[in-house]
Amino acid sequence: MAQFEKVNPKQSFPEMEEAMLAFWKENKTFEKSVENREGAEEFNFYDGPPFATGTPHYGHILAGTIKDVIPRYQTMNGKQVHRKFGWDCHGLPIENIVEKKLEISGKDDIEQKVGVHKFNETCRENVFTYAHEWEKTVNRMGRWVDMENDYKTMDVDFMQSVWWVYSELYKKGLVYEGYRVVPYCPRCSTPLSNFEVNQGYKDKQDKTTTVKFKVKGNESKYILAWTTTPWTLVANLGLAVGEDIDYVELLDHKTEETYVLARDLVKNYFKNEDDYVIMREYKGSCLKGIKYEPLFADFDPEVNPEVYETQGFKKGKNTHSVVIGHHVTTESGTGIVHIAPAYGEDDYQIGKDQNLGFVIHIADNGNTQNLLEHNGVQVFEYNEIALQDVKQRGLTLQINTYDHSYPHCWRCDSPLIYRAISAWYVNVEKIKDKMVDNNQEINWTPNEIKDGRFGKWVANAKDWNISRNRYWGSAIPVWQNEDKTAELCIGSIEEMYQYNKPYGQIEKKEENGEIKYFYTDTNKEVDIHKHFVDEIFLECPKTGQKLKRVPEVLDCWFESGSMPYASKGYPFKQEDSFKFPADFIAEGLDQTRGWFYTLLILGTALFDKAPMKNVIVNGIVLAEDGHKMSKSKQNYPDPKIVFDKYGADAMRFYLMNSPVVEAQDFRFSETGVEEVVKKVILPLWNTYYFFTTYANIDNFEPK
Ligand code: ZN
Question: Buried (b) or exposed (e) across 482-521, using 16+ Cβ within 10 A?
Fold first, then answer.
């Protein structure tokens, strides 16, 4: 009597796998492996969400295999392992696809041509274009994961939890509104990425001017500063000198005025040594703290204090004084740099570090605002007005023209400006030490990531800019009045409903014992994307003022970092499913600055704990030629073909047996997969064939 089923020595492994997949599906084998361990010790797994907008590639197959192997091993050990698949649905990848699809480009087109409502709804409709591809690949590779009860970052439950996370940080004083200086097109009213800026350099002729800043309490002593952007002079709040640069005070015989400038640059202004006499010499450090009279009255706190009070601008301890700037050189100008904190990255940093205060006079549309006169003038026209103004008042020493390569907008050809735009930050520096400690509790594979790549990154962490001036994302849950003197941060839909009561835009109803919220005008259930909540007004509980939501949306990394809480709808739908921290997560090396990092920031901020106990970091799968895998170069085999030819087992074994599971780069070769079939799977199968044949002949009875 034959006890062992006959084995086909010529078995096709891919075919056998397909049959096995059908068997699993029919018998709900994965689901049972979770259900029948109810009550057993739980092994907690978090799935990092991929963008739903691309097709799965080898990097996903690799990470997906690691995310399958470890939970299966723990399942075999008798533990219960829930595995919920996640999707990253928001952000630029899908916004760019939709801009192309709607044949539009940029902010004006989105807001005026199609409208934010249609734009966002088109994002929603198109974000899952490739979901089916993903399901096929995840299934074919034999990964056990729950894709039916998946989480999506665009679900209301998820987004409400993100609000909760944000509001907790807000309550703890860990988020703040600041500014970020970006290249900006005044015509398109939009910031540009560095990548976009590099596409548009062109020659441009500009005027440079050397301006005289009058030292306070001194009739004829001036500090000289040089600028290529006279339009920024009105927003000047400081002058920066180099600590160790040598400066002189010279008396100009012609004007009888004294000027302060770098010694090495005197020759650029005075050709003839008989025209002046040097009175004093000193290092830049001696100039620190000297007060000067502002060039314009517009932002002079003594002349125009209202601008600070009504616009919410800041006066600083050192407004209109000389400070030390580490970026100051004597390569050009006077060796003294005019600082307008709103209009340059260095300027902004110095302004912040040296307490110079902050003012803005260019609006989003590129026109002047907040000035005593000349408001509503286009920035480059205003440039000439400002220049003539200082010249007529005798406050220029020299005006020159010069040609230089200057960034222009690749869309509309306008010259760009550098400009501070409002941004929201997580105060990472405040919790950095705790993050460093919490990182020590994480078991990293490979171990050197802990104190190496990741540890170093955490130790040098900077505040995290979490806002985007975009559309399809989680809305920042902050409402403000017009001049930003009243502000409210909410953390739930219930709170939005409560504070909206005076305006009656939201209704609360109970349906089958469940509380639901509806928008009054459409009677549709509340969705909290930007195009809905921007229309909702809240009443300030302190002042009774009408508040409007700030326009920004959250960086999608804030959402993926919130997934431990948001994927479970925590704290609104707690049930028993919220488990923190995870026993295990896995992703690629690039996530040391991405998901791993944002998980640690938010876990530390909320619970002072790392949200993961064990992490496996995989390296990058390269093409066989050592280059990045590239669709256009076709330098790698289609995963589908590899599955069909050799089977998923061979591919999985090949990847798991390679240094890529220890964060090393790895060249993928089809021959390598073939080798696994020849050297591992076939010998195993042949051994089994041999065994069954002779076991049946000998009537072997296993005991
Ligand atoms: Zn433009």
Answer: eeeebebbbbbbebbbebbeeeebbeeeeeeeeeebbbee
Residues 6+ apart with CB under 8 A from 602: 165, 169, 558, 561, 562, 611
Q: How far is the CA of 126 from the centre of ligand 1 (A)?
A: 27
* Structure tokens belonging to residue 351: 């302004």
Cα distance from N-terminal residue to C-terminal residue, the chain: 16
**DSSP β-bridge partners for residue 182:** 419
pLDDT in tens, 97-117: 999 999 987 777 899 999 999
Q: How many CA within 13 A on the CB side of residue 10?
A: 0
CA distance 213 to 223: 5
What CA–CA distance (Å, rounded) separates 246 from 282? 6
- 222 forms beta bridges with 214, 259
Q: Which residues participate in catalysis according to the annotation?
A: 49, 88, 557, 591, 595, 628, 631
Q: Contact at 8 Å (CB) between 262 and 330? A: yes
User: Residues in the chain with pLDDT < 50?
Assistant: none
Residue 507 Cα, ligand 1 centroid: separation in angstroms? 42
Q: With beta carbons less than 8 A apart as the criterion, state whether 142 and 152 touch.
A: no
CB 359 within 8 A of CB 235: yes
Please give the pLDDT value at position 2: 56
User: Contact 308/320 with Cβ under 8 angstroms?
Assistant: no
Tokens of residue 556, six digits: 């999608």
- d(CA 562, ligand 1 centre) in Å: 35
| Alpha carbon distance 354, 289 (integer Å) | 10
Quote the crossing angle between the two packed helices 639-646 and 13-27, to the nearest 10°.
100
CB-based burial of residue 544 (10 Å sphere; 0-12 exposed, 13-18 middle, 19+ buried)?
exposed
Burial 595-618 (b: 16+ CB within 10 A, else e): bbbbbbbbbbbbeeebbbeebbbb
392-434 pLDDT, tens per residue?
A: 999 998 898 988 888 998 878 889 999 998 889 999 999 999 9
pLDDT of residue 178: 85
Q: What is the DSSP letter of 440?
A: H
- Which tokens in the block code for residue 677? 């079939």
Question: What is the Cα–Cα distance from 653 to 111, expressed in whole angstroms?
Answer: 50
Q: Which residues surround ligand 1, an ion (CB under 5 A)?
A: 185, 187-188, 409, 411-412, 414
Say what angle helices 13-27 and 648-656 make with each other, to 10 degrees.
100
| pLDDT, tens digit, 9 for 90 and up, residues 197-215 | 877 888 989 889 999 999 9
State residue 588 phi and psi, 5-degree precision.
-85, 165
CA distance 179 to 487: 17
Taking Cα atoms as reference points, which of 467, 592, 600 lies closest to residue 530? 467
User: Which pTM value belongs to this model?
Assistant: 0.81
- Taking the centre of ligand 1 as the mean of its atom positions, its distance from the CA of residue 415, in whole angstroms, is 8
Q: Answer whether 211's CB lies under 8 Å from 397's CB.
A: yes
Q: Assign 520 to helix, strand or coil.
A: coil
How far does residue 186's CA lie from ligand 1's centre (Å)?
7
- DSSP strand E in 512-613: where? 514-519, 538-539, 546-549, 553-554, 585-588
